[in-house]
Amino acid sequence: MESKRPPPSALVDSYVVPGDIILDLSEMTNQTIKIGAGLRQDCDTIQATNAGMLRLSKPNKYWVESSHKRYIPSVEDTVLGVVVDIKPDNFLVDIKGPNLAFLPVLAFEGGTRRNIPKYEVRHRIVLYFLFIILLSISILKI
């Protein structure tokens, strides 16, 4: 028995607003659809709950990408951060992004095990993004 693949929504890669019907599930049988942020299932339909760009990832995963007026870090950005936690080998810095940034003490110019910068919680520092790993850990340089 061959199962039908659901037709991708005509709205994929276009902007949707709350209330837009993305998929009608009554026409689909034996299908697994995964819905992510910005979508909800209401009876036999999947509707948008946030405004933004509708995305589709294989196999059958839908979500809405939207900007919530928050900073999304990029490589080579210069930012102002606030130290929120101090560890022996690194600092955790709030850059007002989705996650805290990780700043190794050896990232400082001239930084060695003996020459560790003296920052306290709530100190402000200017940082430069070298690279980003999975958008959850940001490696910074001062």
UniProtKB/TrEMBL annotation:
The keyword Iron-sulfur is assigned to this record: no
SUPFAM superfamilies from the UniProt entry: Nucleic acid-binding proteins, Ribosomal L27 protein-like
One annotated GO molecular function: RNA binding
GO biological process, one term: poly(A)-dependent snoRNA 3'-end processing
GO cellular-component term (any): nuclear exosome (RNase complex)
TM region positions: 121-140
Keywords: Membrane, Transmembrane, Transmembrane helix
Domain Exosome complex exonuclease Rrp40 N-terminal positions: 33-70
Regions annotated as coiled coil: none
Gene3D superfamilies xrefs: 2.40.50.100, Nucleic acid-binding proteins (2.40.50.140)
Signal sequence, renumbered to the chain: none
InterPro entries with a match to the protein in the record: Exosome_RNA_bind1/RRP40/RRP4, NA-bd_OB-fold, Rrp40_N_euk
Entry annotated with the keyword Transcription: no
Protein name: Exosome complex exonuclease Rrp40 N-terminal domain-containing protein
Gene name linked to the record: ga10242
